[in-house]
Amino acid sequence: MVETADYLKMLSRMIRAAGRRVAAADEHELAMLIQLRSEFDQAVQVAIDGQRSFGRSWEHIGLALGLSRQGAFQRYGSKRKNEIKNDLPKPVHLPPP
What is the pLDDT of residue 88? Predict the structure, then answer.
């Protein structure tokens, strides 16, 4: 069984490797890499919702995120449950080569 910390370390290595691969690829792969940001944002929201369902406080979540309790709630709280805050522009869908 893989521990969560080991799993996240592996994922980090894979993301760095993807960046190196895309550096030598074309703009279509770059667009695909950028789209992973949305997947990441959704995964963070799922994780935070799960932490909250197990009783984790907004203070503890904020500490993990480098935010205040209030900042964490404003970004990920119940008011935003169905909305993933994403300050990045939407990826451009390029035609296939």
Answer: 47
Average pLDDT over residues 85-89: 48
Cβ–Cβ < 8 Å for 84, 38: yes
52: exposed, middle or buried (Cβ count in 10 Å: 0-12, 13-18, 19+): middle
**Three-state SS string across the chain, please?**
CCCHHHHHHHHHHHHHHHHHHHHCCCHHHHHHHHHHHHHHHHHHHHHHHHHHHCCCCHHHHHHHHCCCHHHHHHHHCHHHCCCCCCCCCCCCCCCCC
Q: Quote the CA–CA distance of 19 and 29 in Å, as a whole number.
A: 10
pTM of the model: 0.74
Measure the CA–CA gap between 72 and 76, rounded to whole angstroms: 6
Where do the domains of the chain lie? 4-80
Q: Give dist(CA 11, CA 9) in Å, integer.
A: 5
